[in-house]
Amino acid sequence: MTEEIQNNKLKILGKLAASLTHEIRNPLSALKLNLQYLNMSIDKFSEEEAECIKASLDAVERIQILVDNTLTFSRNKSQESAAFELNYVVKQAIEMVQNTAARKSIDINTSFSPDIPKLKFNKDKILQVVLNLITNAIEASKTNSEIFISTKLNPDGSVILEVKDHGIGIGENDKSKIFNDFYTNKKNGTGLGLSVCKMLLDEIGADIDFTSEINVGTKFFVTFPKSLIEE
Ligand SMILES: Nc1ncnc2c1ncn2[C@@H]1O[C@H](COP(=O)(O)OP(=O)(O)O)[C@@H](O)[C@H]1O
Ligand SMILES: [Mg+2]
User: Fold this and answer.
1) Where are the beta strands (DSSP E) in 79-231?
2) Which atom of ligand 1 is closest in space to residue 183's alpha carbon?
3) Which atom of ligand 1 is nearest to 217's Cα?
4) What residues pair up with 208 in beta bridges, in sequence order?
5) What is the pLDDT of residues 16-25, one digit of tens each?
6) What is the DSSP annotation of 178-219?
7) pTM confidence score
8) DSSP 229
9) Nearest to 170 by CA among 104, 222, 133, 215
């Protein structure tokens, strides 16, 4: 693909993201204000109800952060990177999709290596990457199945994140296309999830790859280079 076409696509993406951000921001603010209103009289509610309100407020806040920071595609204004625990970000992502997974009776099992050093990255961007991978895994899975997520420190100092599902898999002909902008085979898909993942990971020199077999499942793995380890 020529650079011109690629740049043009990024411009379209930028516009799409900008209008989406704009459209989402107002209703989201309204939602947050209402939840904050309920939260002001939190002691009027039962413990369970209060927990629901708090969890909703948390989720709204995270969406706000994602909308504001991640969908901007402002690649030049590189956002602050601080050192973060990958395991923590992955746990946060799992929490955000827990309801969606539960509705399909999908168990999300994990294995987190405890000895992963803190990595320098923009937390919201990595959260977006992990969310996209888990969301795809859930969408590809049948009901009553399992998704396995793991983190691992390699002997060479790089860090691997794996998201594995037992879903529909990716056909041989599609394998070379799934990272393309707008490539989707879902009725309501955007085809942007993986291309955004790739773009965000490229920014920090991390790699994304996958193996897949039709009707057996798919495994995505992200490799964070040793250079991201905080000194
Ligand atoms: N875990 C997965 N299992 C099977 N197919 C997948 C998986 N992840 C991605 N794909 C394929 O890659 C395509 C592109 O994914 P993505 O960029 O996230 O866009 P979308 O999810 O909107 O379709 C999907 O439509 C699907 O065909
Ligand atoms: Mg997707």
Assistant:
1) 82-84, 107-112, 119-121, 146-153, 159-165, 207-213, 217-224
2) 14
3) 3
4) 222
5) 777 777 788 8
6) TTSTT---STT--S-HHHHHHHHHHHTT-EEEEEEETTTEEE
7) 0.77
8) B
9) 215
